[in-house]
Design goal:
The complex is a heterodimer of chains A (314) and B (287). By secondary structure, chain A is an alpha/beta fold. Chain A has helices at 40-47, 70-75, 91-101, 106-119, 135-146, 165-180, 192-198, 216-224, 237-245, 271-283, 296-307; strands at 2-11, 14-24, 29-33, 55-60, 63-64, 76-79, 153-157, 184-188, 201-206, 209-215, 227-233, 250-255, 262-267, 288-293. In chain A, strand 7 (153-157), helix 6 and strand 8 (184-188) form a beta-alpha-beta unit. Chain B has one domain (2-286). Chain B is built from twelve helices and three strands, in the order αααααααααβαββαα. In chain B, helix 3 (48-77) packs across helix 9 (168-192) and helix 6 runs antiparallel to helix 8. The relative contact order of chain B is 0.11. The mean pLDDT of chain B is 90. The chains are: A alpha/beta (314), B mainly alpha (287). The A-B interface holds A 45, 48-52, 70, 72-73, 76, 78, 80, 82-86, 88-89, 93, 96-103, 105-106, 145 and B 1-2, 4-6, 8-9, 12-13, 16-17, 87-89, 91-98, 264-265, 268.
């Protein structure tokens, strides 16, 4: 587990992080969300030991980072928000170089590089110069580079930035595979929908302060006051609204002006209660066509906008 | 292991560039052309004249080689570290297990390898001199030593500039300025202070020239080049010897400084070191 305790970071006149405390569970995919200049990259750079906090401590399991500086090099793989590649090296040479400077014995280079290229699906590009790779491929190569020493923790700064939809999906799948391998992944991203789909936990940061953190579902329900339901019926929209009004778990019912058969409502309760709501509508013979909680991505956007007072996400 | 990985990468990148081969070609062409022009202007090749021609050709090639070494070597190292920052790969090096020593040594050796390649590539041109005579192999070895030492100092200063300054253009300009000042300052001061010093007499070289590459080179020419010796603590020492020793010291100092500046926040680290030292001193006094 990573524990960030009362961390402050000041750059001359700018307070980048203020009394920032956060606990990141082992094996989670933790999303850092915040507007431009919120302090996400500063936090990731502190976790990568590239900068030291002005005050406060960072713990990796039971070891405090400043007392064991080599700990970070061993445990953390960092992928910044830029490629950082040597265009004149081939893909294999590029990974072999990073394997070498991470202290991996020469005899293990070939196997490590082959495994990584297979993982990020770049085996067919092994002898290509890095400069000839597409943006998505470069991003995957950088992810392979961050994994070269098999770190326990991965820090990904805006990994999906500038990628086309296909490359984003591939990256998301890759991140999930890595989580399956037991790695803790900390991601900062501005694509909220993707963060909601990918992350198990999120932290929203604004002006260097932690606004809210925790499990994605918990955060969204805490801020938005519960999940939102979207119900579409074939007919009898008015009857549906009447039925929903009698249910305690449902509030704030809104019907679309153009289509009275499309109903939105706030829902508070667990999945069992949700099942009860659907069962009740079916029991009343209401022809339900679709019954779905709104995607957490959409909710996350609302949560983000409400807690960051309208600042645009970075 | 980390050092070897960095050195391999550096040599791969440097030698893969098309520019590298052009630098070698142009370097040898310039030297060869000057040698050819010099020989084509000679009227006769007989008796004592032959060894004189050899000596003069040797001086010409050596001076050209020194100037080229001083002006090419900084280019190989003065963008080593800030170039990584510009390429945005510096952070990735810091995240690795690469120590400050390995980083600086790897970059310096890779840069110097290029400069030494040029120096050694010019050896066949110098061998022309032996065809004419007038220069002993010992003189030649001393001259080569001055070239190598000059390349090491110029390279170390270039590398130091690249750790200190963030912009590659600025660090390159500063490194070149250093080379000009290094070679020309004693001569300027001699003029300004109206000191008398000329080639040809068996005299004492002013201490101003104790670390001057030109005087060091000339002192390796046959017969000591006529520059005389330095007088240090009643001992007469030939300038190329003091030059080599002082260059070694300068290289060590520049290397250590580069190691300090190559890691982030050098000022903050110095403050915390001083703070730790003060606390340690206080606790010793209290005890």
């Amino acid at each position: 587990m990573i524990k960030i305790e009362h961390v402050n970071k000041r750059y001359r006149t700018v307070q980048a992080l203020q009394d920032f405390s956060l606990e990141i569970p082992r094996g989670s995919i933790y999303g850092l969300i915040g507007p431009n200049g919120a302090g996400k990259t500063t936090l990731l750079r502190i976790l990568a030991a590239l900068i030291s906090p002005t005050s406060g401590k960072v713990w990796f399991d039971d070891e405090e980072v400043s007392t064991v500086p080599s700990l970070i090099q061993r445990k953390v793989g960092y992928m910044p928000d830029f490629f950082g590649v040597y265009p004149d090296l081939t893909t294999v040479e590029y990974l072999e170089f990073y394997a070498g400077i991470h202290g991996i014995p020469y005899q293990k280079h070939a196997r490590t590089v082959n495994d990584l290229l297979e993982l990020v699906d770049l085996s067919s590009k092994r002898d290509e110069l890095v400069e000839t790779l597409s943006r998505g491929m470069k991003q995957r190569l950088c992810l392979a580079r961050a994994l070269v020493h098999d770190p326990e923790v991965l820090l990904l700064d805006e990994p999906a930035s500038g990628l086309d939809p296909r490359a984003r999906v591939e990256l998301r799948e890759l991140v999930r595979t890595l989580q399956g391998m037991g790695k803790t992944i900390i991601i900062s991203s501005h694509i909220l929908l993707e963060m909601a789909e990918m992350c198990s936990d999120i932290a929203i940061i604004q002006n260097g302060r932690l606004v809210v953190s925790g499990d994605v579902e918990q955060v969204t329900s805490r801020i938005s006051g519960g999940r939102q339901l979207e119900i579409r019926v074939l007919e009898r929209g008015a009857d549906t609204v009447a039925a929903l009004k009698n249910m305690t778990a449902i509030s704030n019912i809104i019907t679309s002006e153009e289509n009275e058969n499309l109903i939105q409502a706030d829902f508070s309760g667990d999945d069992r209660t949700l099942h009860y709501v659907l069962a009740e509508l079916i029991k009343q013979d209401i022809p339900v066509v679709s019954f779905a909680p709104r995607s957490s991505g959409g909710l996350l956007e609302e949560v983000f906008m409400s807690v960051t007072e309208g600042s645009s996400p970075s | 292991m980390t050092f070897a990985a960095l050195l391999t990468k550096e040599l791969r990148l440097r030698l893969r560039r098309e520019r590298s081969i052009w630098v070698i070609i142009i370097y040898l062409l310039v030297m060869g052309l000057l040698g050819f022009l010099f020989l084509s202007r000679q009227n006769g090749y007989g008796g004592d004249v032959l060894s004189q021609v050899g000596g003069q050709l040797y001086i010409l090639l050596s001076v050209v080689q020194l100037v080229l070494t001083m002006f090419i070597t900084p280019a190989f190292t003065s963008t080593s570290i800030n170039g990584e920052k510009e390429r945005q790969t510096y952070d990735l090096l810091l995240c690795s297990r690469l120590s400050a020593f390995s980083l600086v040594a790897g970059k310096l050796i890779a840069g110097l390898a290029n400069a030494l390649l040029l120096i050694f590539a010019s050896i066949p041109l110098f061998s022309l001199v032996f065809f004419f005579g007038g220069v002993s192999p010992q003189d030649f070895i001393k001259t080569m030593l001055v070239f190598v030492v000059t390349a090491i100092v110029a390279g170390s200063f270039g590398l130091f500039c690249s750790t200190l300054l963030n912009r590659p253009t600025v660090s390159t300009v500063i490194a070149y300025m250093f080379c000009v000042i290094w070679a020309a300052l004693p001569w300027l001061l001699t003029l300004l202070l109206a000191l008398t010093f000329s080639f040809g007499g068996q005299q004492t070289v002013p201490l101003l020239f104790i670390w001057n590459p030109i005087i060091a080179l000339v002192s390796t020419f046959p017969g000591g080049g006529g520059v005389g010796t330095l007088s240090i603590a009643h001992h007469s020492i030939t300038p190329w010897r003091t030059y080599s020793v002082l260059s070694l010291i300068a290289t060590v100092v520049l290397f250590v400084l580069s190691m300090w500046f190559v890691k982030p926040n050098p000022v903050g680290r110095l403050r915390s070191l001083r703070k730790r030292f003060t606390l340690q001193k206080q606790s010793t006094v209290t005890a």
